[in-house]
Structure formats: C-alpha cells, structure tokens
Amino acid sequence: MPPVSRDVALVLLEGAVLYDVGIALQVFGPRAPRPDRPDQPYALTPCGVRRGTITTMSGLRVGVDAGLEAIAAADLVIVPGTDVTRPVPPRLLDALRAAHAGGARMLSICTGAFILAEAGLLDGRHATTHWGYCADLAARFPQVRVDPDVLYVDDGDILTSAGLSAGMDLCLHVVRQELGAEVANGVARWNVVPPHRAGGQAQFIRTPVPDAPGGGLGPTLSWAQAHLRDRLDVTALARHAHMSERTFARRFRAETGLTPKQWLLTQRVLHARRLLERTDLDIEAVATEAGFGSAASLRIHFRRATSTRPTAYRATFRDAAPAAA
C-alpha cells in the first residue's frame, strides 16, 4: 500500500480553477468535514511562488499561505487546473521536479496535468486531463501517453484526473488507498458524491440514452449490488431489466461508461474491501460473499485492483475502520 500522504501541498497559481481548489480543500483541507472520524489525518498547505493571494479563473481571490518550501516538505503535491495559456514559473517547475525526486506523490486535477507535463514528470507516462484539452496536451507534449477516455490515471507516484468532478473521484481514490474504503465512503457520503467511480470509466457519454420506462438501469444496479454473492452475468442483469442482452449491454455502457463485467468486478472488489475492514470473515468466506467463488479468484482480482493481498489489506485497515454510519 502507498504511504499515507500526511503533508499535502496545494499549488495555487494565477488563473487556478476554483472548483478544483475546492475539491482539494474539501477532501484534504483542515476544515474538511469528516463525521466518520474526528481527526483530520492530512495537513494541507496552500502554497505558490509567493505568499499573498491569487485570482482564480472565476475572479475570486484565494489566499496563499506559504511559498515553494511547502512543496519540498510535502508527501503529496496537488496541482489544480489552471489557465493553460499562462506561462509556468520556472521556480515552480524546479520545485515540482525536486519534490518528485524526493519521493512525493504528484496529483493533478483537470488541466493541472499541463504543469506536470511542463516539468517533464509525465514523460513516458499514461496521463489524462479534461476531455476538451486532451488533444492539446498530446500535441504540446508528444512524449506523454494521453488517455482521453478515462476519469483518472493512477501511475503510482503520479496521478492525473479529468476535469471537474473527476478530481473528486481521484482524491477519494487516494483516501481509499491510504485510509480504507470506509473512510473514503464517509467523505463521499458527506459530500453527496458517488463513493467510487473506477478510473477507467468513460469521461462522458458520446451517445445520448433514449428515455425509457422505469427511469434507466438504477433499479437493476441496486438489485445487483444486493445480490453480489450470486452468479451474476449480463444474462441475469438483462433479464432483471427486461431487455435483450444486446440492448442491455448497449444501454449499460451508455449509462455507466463501463461494461457489465467491469462494473460487476468493481462492485465485488469494493464489497470485499468493506468485508475485510468490518468483519472477521476468513478469506474464503469473503470471496463467497463478494461473489468471487473462491479465495484464489478473490486474491487475483483484489491484487489487480488494489496492488495488495486481501490479508495485507485487512491488516492495514481492519483496526482503523470507523463504525458504519
């Protein structure tokens, strides 16, 4: 598991996207509501090339509490979206390179990826940004492998997200990695956002979904989440939705941005994480309850999704998980 990012530096530049700044503050900031646990394990410092204030893209001024020295001391450096036409101060680029070389994780929201690319930190890496800027990012930095079709990319020590709400998805992903699914779910619940959207989910739906009786696939998704231990596949889901398999698969992708198989696997891993955090069930029982069928299958899929073993995950998060809200 990645180390917990206790010290967080939030980089503020002229033209920063206020929405992105707000996301970082809402998740990692000192006043971020955390009703599920009284402490705030993250210490966030707004910083920039100079102390004072900056004017965001929205015209609102935001205070900058520290200079670039905060980046050098950070475990996690967050770069919000910004005006991509503005030149990036060379001193900031040097600070980002030095922090990364020193072991800090780098996280960009939206067009913040342009700043990481300018620093050379995305060379040879997979990355993403807001879909409207992906072509520009790829053209300006051809050494970056830009993926325009995902919400976020976790490349280990460097993480990039698409625009706006995808920044919240990525920040919750970091909390989930470092503090467990229950803590991340508590943050999501308080902010009234989905507790988990997979990074590989599509940024937007290209084909509008026609109206249909019943208001979409919501009832079928809820039913599936309550029956994860059963043998679910596209045939069972389509039958519940009263659709042909072909129509169901097309509508499912249009509404969720995922295939039914991808969605089911994500839900099963999430359920397994909750069981590992909140129960004393052995690994075989967790595999059964989550619908994997066997401990061996659980271990394979769990490791692919979390980069750790179920037993190691439980050892990390079992005692720290808060009570269910």
From TrEMBL:
Domain HTH araC/xylS-type, residue spans: 218-316
Keywords, sorted A to Z: Transcription, Transcription regulation
Origin: domain of life: Bacteria
Gene3D superfamilies on file: 3.40.50.880, Homeodomain-like
Transcription among keywords: yes
Pfam families in UniProt: DJ-1_PfpI, HTH_18
SMART domains (alphabetical): HTH_ARAC
Protein name: Helix-turn-helix domain-containing protein
Organism encoding this protein: Paraconexibacter antarcticus
Lineage: Bacteria, Bacillati, Actinomycetota, Thermoleophilia, Solirubrobacterales
